[in-house]
Design brief:
Layout (H helix, E strand, L loop, with lengths): L4 H8 L12 E7 L4 E9 L5 E8 L3 H14 L12 H12 L7 H25 L6 E3 L4 E2 H11 L4 H8 L9 H17 L1
Antiparallel strand pairs: 1-2, 2-3, 4-5
Helix pairs in contact: 1-2, 2-3, 2-4, 5-7
């Protein structure tokens, strides 16, 4: 296969194509059009810093190049800096490194993106399993409990997910708890309306 120059350059300089020992987040993405896979490995420190990221893939150069770009992008970032893996931000990162790719390669890039998101989701699930507190853990990325968020909503009169995030970092990591925070805000406002 003849690759565009941006892909050829990236393939000649892959820095993250390897297994990662002691990873605490792994995820697999599949390209159903060709059956190839991308597996992401993350090692995230207790303070929320992504200490290392790597990948393995049996896919084409497009999926390997995209995975390498994504692994480089997340490494050494704080979870809070990823903004819940915003799709538009990911697209900007990939396009700035790889340029415009033909539509037939969207599934290749999507497999890499999916693998990264699944790795973060699996990290979150592992953190939930490790939590032994008495109150429900809402934000696993930053260890923020339901009780903490309820207290902040009540005492600081918070009305949006963004305000909760600014107050305690909940919702600023992988982003998967943002919907739960919104439900808590809605419940609080419903309760206040009754009073």
């Amino acid at each position: 296969m003849v690759y565009p120059e941006s892909i050829r350059i990236k393939l000649a300089n892959l820095t993250r194509c390897r297994e990662l020992q002691n990873s605490n987040g792994e995820g697999v993405g599949v390209n159903l059009s060709c059956g190839s896979t991308v597996r992401f490995f993350l090692r995230i420190d207790d303070d929320g810093r992504i200490a290392d990221a790597a990948f393995r893939s049996n896919g084409c150069g497009h999926s390997r190049a995209a995975a390498d770009v994504l692994a480089e992008w997340v490494t050494n970032k704080q979870l809070i800096d990823l903004h819940g893996l915003n799709a538009a931000e990911i697209d900007v990162v990939l396009q700035s490194e790889l340029g415009d790719l033909a539509d037939e390669h969207n599934a290749c890039v999507a497999a890499a993106t999916s693998a990264l998101k699944v790795a973060f989701a699996n990290y979150r699930a592992m953190r939930c399993e490790e939590f032994h507190g008495e109150k429900a853990l809402i934000c696993t990325c930053f260890g923020v409990t339901e009780e903490k968020i309820e207290d902040l909503i009540a005492t600081s009169h918070l009305t949006s997910v963004g305000q909760v995030t600014a107050a305690c970092n909940a919702g600023s990591g992988c982003g998967s708890c943002r919907m739960l925070i919104q439900e808590m805000l809605d419940a609080s406002h419903d309760h206040e309306a009754v009073l």
